[in-house]
Amino acid sequence: MKFKADEITSVIKREIENFRTELDLANVGQVLEVSDGIARVYGLTSAMAGEMVQFESGVYGQVFNLEEGSVGIVVLGDYLTIEEGHSVRCTGQLLSVPVGPELIGRVVNPLGQPMDDGGPIVTTRRRPVETPAPGIAERQPVTEPLQTGLKAIDSMTPIGRGQRELIIGDRKTGKTAIALDTIINQKGQGVICVYVAVGQKESTIASVVDTLKRAGAMDYTIVVAASAADPAPLQYVAPYAGCAMAEHFMYEEGQATLCIYDDLSKQAQAYRQLSLLLRRPPGREAYPGDIFYLHSRLLERSAKLAERRVIVEMTSPPDTREGVNGKVYVGVPGIHEAKTDLGRMDNRDRLEVRVVPGSGGSLTALPIIETLEGEVSAYVPTNVISITDGQIYLVSDLFFAGVRPAVEVGISVSRVGGKAQNKAMKKVAGSLRLDLAAYRELEAFAQLGTELDAATQAQLDRGARMVEILKQPQYVPMSVTDQVLIIYAGVKGFLDDVPIPRVHEFESRFLKFMRDQTTDIYNELQSRGELTDDLEEGIRQAIKTFKETFKRS
Asked: Which of 82, 302, 345, 368 is the most buried (most CB within 10 A)?
């Protein structure tokens, strides 16, 4: 058999040209044991804390414990598909979720995978579930209101964009209802909402989604669901995933966002379960020592960002270009986040950079905590109270007495206060909290059967009518203009002679009268957001005119 030298030479040349020295390196380990959503893996010597890994069965996990002889991994999926001896591969990436407008209107799990019938989510953008909170210099004070549409909250415990306001109370006291009312009230306000359901029944989550759809709120809402049937690792990571989805709109789009965590008690219980299974030392109530950090690193990510508009002025050649929301140009000294090419620049060109502060995006957090028989001094509730900027405390006694929302004004507080209210609401509701607290005390005293003087009786009568005014049906949020008008009528004594059973009738008819027959006054109050002396006199006359027709009916 004869060989052709030129053919052999050409084959050898081609092989040499195609030869690559790069090796396909992968850090691969082996499962030692797996149970209850936890896997112990041997061989992942270069794994990072918080890194995402992939098991042989296709399920993902997150590195949780770095030990001397093994790595503890929480399984983010069905751990029953993993067996001893299966291979585990490091991905070299921290746990991340898909983000972007493609998720709006969808129901997803904590990994960003769709759970509804809307088809796959097509987006190339991802964001780590754990990111550092913005620093002091990157924030600005909370001054812009975020209206809930609930009279009892917007008047006495106002919430501002960028605030963290805790909703706390026993089970079945209307905590989720307040959160959903707040989402529904953001319609047309340009606020992107993220509702995170942790450890709830799947039927409850389906009911929430149905309520939001009927109200048209899913057009600007993302629902992240980790039900009670899901493994503890998914319940633990769900709030961070929801926060990451909201942060995309805050940082990249400069939008206002609202994130509701319903509820963090169940996330803390899931984290306790993981920690005990990984043999971390237990502390008070068997929670691990870093339970405070679990919630602080989540809630501190809420902020009202200080927008920086960077103006770049070139003196040679003369040119001016702008970058908005911190997206600035290559070549600008001292600015690290470069987004756009400034064009052809010579090293001798002189640049002047001016930073103009304004109003940036925001992330408002409404965490929910469930208490047991009103025990607010338990471990997790006190931790979250100390992290947040105030709390809305709901009590069972008021709820079952028909006072809904069942807000206890004596304990509920907003540390932002009147800064997050418009001037009209601040003026009419200034003394409302103290008046209601005094009414509660007098009501308890009057139950003893003691004879009351005329002034005390008048205070009791007005307090009873203010309680009726602050009652509100579920999923019917009210505009701030309507709230100001009816609260003004109550605190100024115009309802003192209206029978208590007719207060709600008075309210609905009065607001309709103001919208239809005194349109100029209503529109002026709506546009100005301030109660001037002339406007106040106009409202007084309108109330008197309406009362005459109301009495005759």
From this structure: 302
Give the bridge partners for 127, in sequence order.
Answer: 97
What is the residue type of 303? Answer: A
User: Scanning the structure block, which residue is given the tokens 């009230």?
Assistant: 185
* Set 89, 139, 297, 415: catalytic member: 415
CB distance 410 to 479 below 8 Å: no
> Does 415 qualify as catalytic in the annotation?
yes
Average pLDDT over residues 374-387: 94
- Tokens 């493994």 locate to 231
* Tens digits of residue pLDDT in 122-157: 999 999 999 999 998 889 999 999 999 999 999 999
Distance CA 365, CA 392 (A): 13
Rounded distance between C-alpha atoms, residue 484 and residue 521, angstroms: 13
The three-state secondary structure class of 370 is strand
Residue 42's SS3 state is: strand
Which residues fall within 8 angstroms of residue 394, CB to CB, at 6 or more apart? 167, 168, 169, 170, 173, 174, 175, 178, 405, 406, 407, 408
Asked whether residue 455 carries a pLDDT value surpassing 90, the answer given is no
Is the separation of the CB atoms in 514 and 455 below 8 Å? Answer: no
C-alpha closest to that of 403 among 356, 463, 335: 463
- Please tell me what DSSP assigns to residue 114: B
The pLDDT tens digits of the residues spanning 263-315 come to: 899 999 999 999 999 999 999 999 999 999 999 999 999 999 987 654 454 44
Structure tokens at 548: 């005459």
Cα-Cα-Cα-Cα dihedral sign, residues 261, 387, 184, 173: positive
Locate the DSSP E strands across 277-414: 303-315, 318-323, 328-329, 338-340, 351-370, 390-394, 413-414
The Cα–Cα gap between 362 and 350 comes to 35
- The type of residue at 198 is V
DSSP conformation class of 493: T
Exposure string for 74-97, b = 16+ CB within 10 A, e = fewer: bbbbebeebeeebebebeeebbbb
Residue 60: strand pairing partners = 54, 76
Q: Which amino acid is at 441?
A: E
CB 202 within 8 A of CB 73: no
Q: How far apart are CA 48 and CA 283, in angstroms?
A: 26
Q: Are 38 and 74 in contact (CB under 8 A)?
A: yes
Helix (H, G, I), strand (E, B) or coil at 308: strand
Q: pLDDT for 483-512, tens place per residue?
A: 999 999 999 999 999 999 999 999 999 999
Q: What is the pTM of this model?
A: 0.86
Question: pLDDT, tens digit, for every residue of 339-377?
Answer: 334 444 444 444 555 554 444 899 999 999 999 988 999
The set of long-range contacts for 544-551, using a CB threshold of 8 Å and a minimum separation of 24, is 544/494, 546/509, 546/510, 546/513, 546/514, 547/494, 550/498, 550/506, 550/509, 550/510
How far, in Å, CA of 397 to CA of 216, rounded?
33
Determine if residue 283 is left, alpha or beta; phi over 0 gives left, psi from -120 to 50 gives alpha, anything else beta. Answer: beta
Q: Three-state SS across 132-163?
A: CCCCHHHECCCCCECCCCCHHHHHHCCCECCC
